[in-house]
Design a protein that fits this description.
Elements lengths: L37 H6 L7 E5 L4 E2 L4 H11 L4 E5 L18 E5 L5 H5 L25 H12 L5 E4 H5 L5 E3 L4 E3 L2 H5 L3 E3 L4 H12 L13 E5 L7 E4 L20 H6 L6 H16 L7 E2 L6 E2 L11 E2 L2 E2 L7 E4 L3 H6 L1 H13 L8 E6 L6 E5 L8 H8 L6 E2 L17 H6 L2 E3 L1 E2 L10 H4 L5 E2 L2 H14 L6 E2 L1 E3 L13 H6 L19 H11 L6 E2 L7 H4 L3 H10 L4 E7 L3 H7 L4 H17 L5 E6 L8 H13 L2 E5 L10 H8 L20 H11 L7 H10 L71 E5 L15 H7 L20
Helix pairs in contact: 2-7, 11-23, 15-17, 17-19, 19-21, 22-24
Length: 833
Amino acid sequence: MTTYADVSLFPRDAKPLSSYRKFWAARFGVAPFLPMSRDEMTQLGWDSCDIIIVTGDAYVDHPSFGMAVIGRMLENQGFRVGIIAQPDWQSAEPFKALGKPNLFYGVTAGNMDSMINRYTADRKMRSDDAYTAGDVGGKRPDRAAIVYTQRCKEAYKDVPIILGGIEGSLRRIAHYDYWSDKVRRSVVVDSKCDLLLYGNAERAVVEIAHRLAAKEPVQNITDVRGTAFVRRETPEGWFEIDSTSVDAPGRVEAHVNPYLMISEQALEQGESCARNDEARAVADEVNSKTAAKGSKAVKGAVGGKTESPLLFQPNPSLQVKGKLKVPPRDRSVIRLPSYEQVKSDPVLYAHANRVLHLETNPGNARAIVQAHGDGRTARDVWITPPPIPLTTAEMDLVFDLPYARSPHPIYADENGGHDGVTKIPAWEMIRFSVNIMRGCFGGCTFCSITEHEGRIIQSRSEDSVIREIEEIRDKVPGFTGVISDLGGPTANMYRIGCKSPAIESACRKPSCVYPDVCQNLNTDHSSLIHMYRRARALKGVKKILIGSGLRYDLAVKSPEYIKELVTHHVGGYLKIAPEHTEMGPLSKMMKPGIGSYDRFKQLFDKFSLEAGKKQFLVPYFIAAHPGTADEDMMHLALWLKSHGFRADQVQTFYPSPMATATAMYHSGRNPLSRVTRESETVDIVRGDRRRRLHKAFLRYHDANNWPLLREALKAMGRADLIGNGKKHLIPFHQPQTDGSYTSVRRKNSTEAAGARGVKTAQPVRTAPSVRPVATYGKSIIQTPVKVAARVGAKAALKSGLPAKPSAAVRSAKSVRSGQILTQHTGLPPRRKS
């Protein structure tokens, strides 16, 4: 096992979560479920709640759901916590269901951003909601964080409101909003909350709760890390760093006065200077003023006037023995371009996004401030540095809390269970899974993990993980001996971090694995291997699968880990995410080249053969990502066909708020490098037609896409790819189609026009594959929604006719009602030979 007690080694000056004195209400004990009604409060002996959490999700008491983690953490501190889940937002009355909270309302939109939860990448409303009982859509409003906060204010005006969750984290500064196609203000301003908590908020919410319980006014709580709030002005004692512009002052060039005559004419009229002479003199005068060091007056070259230059006096507090030192980071604040500036100037928006991402390391990040409004309405959104990561002991405390590990009884069906019509799909997905860590240092530009959880890996102890597996085995109904996942945001970053505390605390790189794995990164997978072996040796545990996405460029550094994984923890299919094959889009995603995938596949196939197993990789790809040219998608389609893959579930890049790729999408600039007026521009895939084209390349096998592909290939000068041979992408012949597409998975199919009374063919909209991860807001928005490519038939299409159905398709036809299907393919388990 690794010798590191914690992955992150820089000094933690934060107060441990277990060191607070319990609030007096701890005498009431632990609730079976946090109450959702007055009757439940009465049964617990409560006359009121100290804290009420309002959430856009159904209440599931499980460590993968944000409201449960925060609620149980506050209960552990002695507070009485109630839950209002998915209230009717049409009035303030449902927000009074539990009475007036003694301390504050805690508001979260849920495990997903409410807009991503409600709308597809094509801005069409979803009909389902994986975080709602019965998978029913429409149980939360658009921009739920704003709506819920306003209703709480209406219910009780004098009660502080603390906003948290993924929606608040990703909208803490002025941000591009994909659904309205404009830059919106910080959610702190729009919601009028008293405090916003971003990232993993256990530290912040516990400290704030105790300070409010001690009667400290909420407006005085401005020194907690991981918070955002409104200020009118910068307080004394802070050093403000101006970063409101991308323009830097330079040398003044000589400008010719157009009203002066040429030299000969000037001399004839008694003038003593010529056009060029005067221009040079004016430039020399200005440059000499800029370079002035003392109080010596500079004599102007025009008019003979004497002017005194501006004198800049050194700040005594920054002088140490004659040398200039940097302002202390804990008293420095960076001023970003204002909301009005980034709204009207895409270049400044990209610049602000870059600065924000450079200030995400808890070891060296500085406070950030952004102005909103002018004149009397002017106010600053002040964002404190990111929260200090939890130690391993604190992670164990969070995950060892007394969760019921099931939905609240209010969601039970007629049989008293949660497997019927009231089943919550998101809970079903993680019902038998275990979260072993938080954070991700991959830095993928389309992903929001870094903005919410950060790059520092926070790992649980092995004993804590084993205890949770035993608890699932012994207490969770329906457990058959299979743990569906042992992972987190990434499957194989457990206990991996920087080798040097000094380097880690000073590093400002957005990724530890791009363009290559950092030489300072500890890539030892031995701790994870030991945990796998210990977990599968537990009595009653038959199989442990790895469902989280694997970082394969990191895994190839440890062949022993790949062998362990392939031999024991792959259920026939393993999902990985190369995202693309071409370096143009990959460089904008900060993902490794396809060569890393090839190296991993060689090891995967080798160890699968040694284990006597026939196993497959399921690669994920992204359509229409910023920086993707039409030619890139064409080459990706050719790669897919040459490797026998057929993309089944296809959706396009989804710009989530505050992600780096979203900044590219809005500004057309690349914030991965210094942003200037002349900096690199990025090819942006806009418009329905071009987005459809990129989808069509990934679904080259669907005859409905062939007319569009033929037109595009001809325009690109690649008509040679149209034909009936193996090296052709699509055939000449266009078969009769009704616009439908049949997939192995029902929810990935589309109906024909007129089918079941539907006038036009509409794609069946499905929620993106989201694996909740224990954070405040506690779900990782896996953006953009990716393409799950499955292994298809190797036979080429001939004469425009579909290939012979693959074994997978033939197997799907034999699926019996009630038969267990594999997690990733929707097919029955492979027969044992």
